[in-house]
Amino acid sequence: MNDSRIAETIKIGGGVEYAKVSTRLAEFHRDNTECSIETECEFKDGWVLFSARITTSRGIFTGHSMDKASVRPKQFEKQETIAVGRALAFAGYLSSGEIASFDEMSDVSQLAPSSDVPFEE
Questions:
Q1: pLDDT tens digits for range 75-119
Q2: Sequence spans of domains, the chain
Q3: What angle do CA 41, 1, 97 make, to 5 degrees?
């Protein structure tokens, strides 16, 4: 795949078109027979940080997700999927034509600076 393209989509809140990570992942594997996807998880000071690294003949693409650790159902799997989805977007397999979804950006804008975030500026 040489150009970014949008995979088959579904409608989510507000009528936004969204390509699920599973759809983009299937398209990615169809286009890249020689590739790897690796994920790592780090727990730090009550936070969960996932990193995904996609390696193809075109390069290396990374994605990350971070959330407070909790006992929410499937939190671990959701965070890993978000990281993989972001790496896929950087590799050109976009979810809605953008790297970050509207919901992600809304969530970030609502976060107040906090001293309990485990990463320094």
A1: 889 899 999 999 999 998 876 666 655 455 445 444 445 555 555
A2: 5-105
A3: 65
Where does residue 92 fall: left (phi above 0), alpha (psi -120 to 50 degrees), or beta otherwise? left
Structurally, what CATH architecture does the domain formed by 5-105 represent?
2-Layer Sandwich (3.30)
Decide: pTM greater than 0.90.
no
- DSSP-assigned letters across all residues of the chain: --S-EEPP-EEEGGGEEE--HHHHHHHHHHH-SS-EEEEEEEEETTEEEEEEEEEETTEEEEEEEEEE----TTHHHHHHHHHHHHHHHHTTEESSSSSS-HHHHHHHHHPPP-TTSS---
Structure tokens at 117: 């975030």
